[in-house]
Write a structure and sequence with these properties.
Layout: H1 2-6, H2 11-18, H3 22-32, H4 57-73, H5 81-91, H6 101-110, H7 132-135, E1 141-152, E2 156-165, E3 171-176, H8 181-195, E4 200-203, H9 207-210, E5 215-216, H10 221-228, E6 232-235, H11 245-259, H12 267-284, H13 286-290, E7 313-319, E8 325-328, E9 331-334, E10 343-349, E11 354-359, E12 370-375, E13 382-383
Parallel strand pairs: 1-4, 4-6, 6-7
Antiparallel strand pairs: 1-2, 2-3, 5-13, 7-10, 8-9, 10-11, 11-12
Length: 388
């Protein structure tokens, strides 16, 4: 490269010829200077600085002694880098350079004199950690949600019911104007009849899933559907993030990759495009779906009855209040005064007439001790009287 430049070629043309950057050619030309090419030192040079400015050891010792003294005698109880530099500035001779705040911080760090501990990065809990059977991949969990507030050309409003399995990524999307509990029941029956039943079905606290919040001991039609099929309904804690992450992620993908990219005139065309998108998503996740926990077969002679009580369990994920009480089924249950503002899993055993409260910790997801058992049988739904 240097020979080509000395022969009259431009730096840029040489860089293009040898497929290197312009700065590389400039560096080697500067290295060669006017010397003969056979006398130039072409070996790589260290990028370390030629001179290293190190703080005087006596200054480092003084900084450490000041920190020790301030820690024991400071009226304000401050003995960090700022406090140490303040003392050095007061004591210093006008001709002496006081170390900067950052230099004092490096001295303390280098000598291991810092009290602050580095943040411990703990691994995330496994998917479905709040349900032991799901966390151990013994059963599958389907997350169900609704995308609201979509509008077609001409002012036609509609909703999208979405579902995705936690381990397998088996997804589904159904459009309706709007989505009511009957749409949820029909869609889930069709979906589970084809793909099998999960062990759990998880919802948020929308009235379409959980039923009216104005009654006590109210069991919604969607809950009765799950109980009649042997699927345990699970309700995520209100205003908590992470529990519905899988379905929220699928909702975002459906809107970004389909709704925002296509222009349709009617709901039928959108349903056709959505079905194609869902089928393509399932094909891409075929290996993951195949490796997911086995889903139970849909019963052949089953019929939906939303009026007959069904045995089984209903799971509520809740956060206790300042008194250690959790609210579910339109009632407040005392759990544990020593567990305030913490997560609990409330399992409503309809057959035994019990509610079991288990402690939940993200830091220790496998440790879920039983906090309390409460005897409670569902009675006739009663309207909750609100204070005026």
């Amino acid at each position: 490269m240097v020979a080509a430049v000395r022969a009259g070629a431009s730096l840029r043309s040489v860089a293009r010829r040898f497929a290197v950057g312009l700065r590389t050619v400039q560096r080697w030309v500067d290295r060669a200077g006017d010397a003969r090419l056979d006398r130039v030192d072409w070996s790589d040079r260290s990028r370390a600085p030629h001179r290293v400015r190190r703080t005087d050891p006596a200054v480092e010792i003084e900084v450490l002694e000041l920190r020790r003294g301030l820690r024991e005698e400071s009226v304000l109880g401050e003995y960090g880098a700022a406090a140490i530099r303040g003392v050095l500035v007061e004591r210093a001779d006008p001709n002496v350079v006081v170390p900067s705040l950052r230099t004092i911080g490096r001295i303390l760090e280098r000598r291991g004199a810092l009290d602050a501990r580095r943040r411990i990065r703990r691994p995330a809990p496994p998917p479905g950690w709040y349900l032991p059977a799901v966390a151990d991949r013994r059963v599958e969990l389907d997350e169900i949600d609704v995308i609201e507030g979509l509008r077609l050309k001409g002012g036609f409003d509609f909703d999208v019911l979405t579902a995705i399995s936690l381990h397998g990524g088996l997804c589904g999307a159904w459009q309706a104007p709007p989505v009511r509990w009957s749409v949820v029941v029909d869609a889930l029956v069709d979906h589970w009849r084809v793909h099998g039943l999960p062990g759990y079905a998880q919802f948020d606290n929308d009235t379409r899933f959980a039923g009216s919040h104005g009654y006590t001991d109210f069991v919604s039609p969607v809950m009765r559907l799950c109980l009649g099929l042997g699927v345990t309904p699970v309700f995520a804690p209100p205003r908590e993030t992470g529990f519905q992450a899988a379905i929220e992620s699928f909702n975002g993908r459906w809107q970004a990759k389909l709704w925002s990219r296509v222009w349709v005139d009617d709901l039928a065309e959108l349903q056709a495009r959505s079905l194609a998108y869902v089928e393509a998503s399932r094909h891409r996740s075929a290996a993951r779906i195949e490796g997911a926990p086995t889903r139970a077969a849909f019963p052949t002679d089953w019929q939906f009855d939303r009026r007959t009580d069904q045995p089984g369990r209903i799971v509520y994920l809740r956060r206790t209040d300042d008194r250690g009480a959790a609210r579910l089924l339109g009632r407040s249950f005392d759990v544990d005064r020593l567990w305030p503002h913490r997560l609990v899993r409330a399992e409503v055993d309809l057959g035994a007439g019990l509610i079991r409260f288990f402690a939940l910790r993200r830091r220790e997801p496998a440790d879920q001790p039983l906090l309390r058992e409460v005897a409670h049988r569902l009675g006739r739904p009663t309207r909750i009287r609100r204070l005026p």
